[in-house]
Amino acid sequence: MRSSFLLVGSRQTFAFARDSGLPFTRYLYRINSYTRTPVNPLLLDALLALVIDLLAFASTQVIDAMFTLTVMSPYISYIILILTRFAFKNDFKPGPFNLEKFSFLVVSIAVS
After folding, report:
1. What are 43-79's pLDDT values in tens digits?
2. What phi and psi values does residue 93 have, to the nearest 5 degrees?
3. pLDDT of residue 2
4. Which of 3, 32, 85, 92 is 20 to 30 A from 79, comparing alpha carbons?
5. Where are the beta strands (DSSP E) in the chain?
6. 31 pLDDT exceeds 60?
7. Could you give the CA distance from residue 41 to residue 32 in angstroms, rounded to a whole number?
8. Is the confidence at residue 22, as pLDDT, over 70?
9. CB-based burial of residue 38 (10 Å sphere; 0-12 exposed, 13-18 middle, 19+ buried)?
10. Alpha-carbon gap, residue 17 to 84, rounded angstroms
């Protein structure tokens, strides 16, 4: 499971670096000529994972707080996106599959 997180994280880091969304983009957006893979984002993510793992030695409360934030962060980001879709005027155009008049009901249940 740990290797899949590292794989996904390095892909996201590479994509953000490609779009100039991270500091040191010039170093992160490089492809290794031998392996033809983005090695630098992989090394950065492995280093960050090691630092987070070392927090377990500091205190169990610290690592528990980190895990709690990791679990809660995606839900918070989904709720923010859903709420802004319905709270503000926008030019959202539904795709071929949509819930039409039931969409607000489903969103209300999902957010609550």
Report:
1. 998 998 888 888 878 888 888 888 888 888 888 888 8
2. -115, 115
3. 65
4. 3
5. none
6. yes
7. 11
8. yes
9. buried
10. 27
Instruction: Say which amino acid occupies 105.
Output: L
State if pTM tops 0.70: no
CA-CA distance, 19 to 13, in Å (whole number)? 10
- Predicted confidence at residue 43, as pLDDT, reads 92
> Largest alpha-carbon pair distance within the chain?
54
Which tokens hold the place of 57? 């030695």
109 CB neighbour count, 10 Å cutoff: 8
3-state secondary structure of 91: coil
Residues whose CB falls within 8 Å of the CB of residue 111, separated by 6 or more in sequence, listed in order: 79, 82, 83
Cα pseudo-dihedral 63, 65, 70, 73, rounded to 10 = -170
